[in-house]
Amino acid sequence: MKMIEHIRFILSIAIKHLAGKRRQTILVIAGVTIGSMVMILTLALGEGIVQDIKDKIIETSPYIVITGEKIQPKETQLYHAPADSSIVYSMVSRVKPNEKKQIKPYPETMALLSSVKNINGAAPFVFTRGVLRYHTITKQGLIKGIVPSLEINVGNLESKVVTGSLNELSFTKDGILLGSGLAKKLKTAYHNIINITGESGKVFRVRVVGTFASGFGAIDDNTAYINLALAQQINNVPENAVSGIGIHTVSLDVVNETSLLLQRTTGYKTETWEETNENVITLFKRNNSITIFLVLFVFIVSGFGIANVLITIVLQKQNDIAIMKSMGVSRRSIESIFIIEGVILGIIGALLGGLAGHLLTNLISSLPISYGENAVVRNDHIVTVQRAYFYVLTTVFSIVISAVSSLGPARRAARLNPVEILRG
């Protein structure tokens, strides 16, 4: 009972102090509110960008890619010790110069996939670089040869087609599906004839059967899809060889497990979608961390404001503090009063900031804002993601900063000598 009365006493004094400095209290709470709001918005925007990138990667790319790199490369005998040598030694090389990394024969590897569980789609592909030319305009591009009927089961390319159709590519042997940005740069349109010059220097005529937009600037501006057989011709790849095989699993949860199983089954190195795009995802996460670090300084500035208000209260309430001490109020209780004042400011600011951050985040995500043609990730609105721990983290940080900021004024108040004050 005495404990509850003691807490009530401390809270009543703290509230009276803050109410007596209403203007300064409101300004400090506003500072904490802005800091909390900006931090929540920053976290939501940062998480939204990363999530948007992941979603676009998952929608357009295979979950796993079986590459043309063997796990155990073939060894080439370089030198062997003579039979009459007293020391037995051998020199071998596991690298063949100018050897292309290919899955060969790929039909056998495709057949092995039927024994691997959790796979619901597999599609071979050939990557090649070439120069695309329409009239006098030339652009370099990354050309991917696919089997459209199989690619549908691996990626979501069909839903990304904006003109023409993926189905038309399947029955047009010399067809090409251009990225929307690449088509714009070439100034070409549906059913136009363009030329592709491959690595061998041979020119191939192809017909534009459509365009696609993945949402990634680098892909839309530089990538095109053609039929697998044509890509093999352009890249001088045998009919039974491919650059890799894209895999789609029943769930993202089994990607890592399935990737390891595929390596053991096929003998080829595999990469998950996260490993393939690790640099892009890491870059945006690092940028988010730097931004959050800068936002934290808003809280630190708010902390100085809290300390300033509490010091002012200490100076103006010296007589009250002296009277309380002379009445037997302990030094620890005096400290607690001012620490509680700081915590109250932090809690109120965090709650108001959380509400403002939530409303502002929803408002921004609802606005039709384009990222622009030069954006790395293209969208017609700003993607945000709000998570519960954003608000918990912001509230905890706000309270901690407020409590730490109040320690100095609290100790100063506790050190006051009531005799000297009352005499003065």
- Look at the helices and sheets and give the structural class: alpha+beta
Overall geometry: elongated
Distance between the termini: 37 Å
- The overall strand count is 12
Oligomer: single chain
Describe this structure in words.
- The protein has 424 residues and is an alpha+beta fold.
- It has 2 domains: 2-58 and 280-423, no CATH class; 64-273, no CATH class.
- It has helices spanning 2-20, 22-60, 106-112, 148-151, 157-160, 166-171, 180-186, 217-220, 228-234, 255-266, 273-276, 278-316, 318-326, 331-366, 388-415, 418-423; strands at 64-70, 76-80, 90-93, 119-134, 137-146, 161-164, 175-179, 193-197, 203-212, 223-227, 244-249, 268-272.
- Strands 4-5-10-7-9-8 form a 6-stranded mixed β-barrel. It has a two-stranded antiparallel ribbon with strand order 2-3.
- The longest helix is centred in the first third of the chain and has 39 residues, at 22-60.
- It starts with a helix and ends with a helix.
- The model has no long low-confidence stretch (mean pLDDT 81).
Layout: helices, strands, pairs:
Layout (H helix, E strand, L loop, with lengths): L1 H19 L1 H39 L3 E7 L5 E5 L9 E4 L12 H7 L6 E16 L2 E10 L1 H4 L5 H4 E4 L1 H6 L3 E5 H7 L6 E5 L5 E10 L4 H4 L2 E5 H7 L9 E6 L5 H12 L1 E5 H4 L1 H39 L1 H9 L4 H36 L21 H28 L2 H6 L1
Parallel strand pairs: 5-10, 7-9
Antiparallel strand pairs: 1-11, 1-12, 2-3, 4-5, 4-8, 4-11, 6-9, 7-10, 8-9
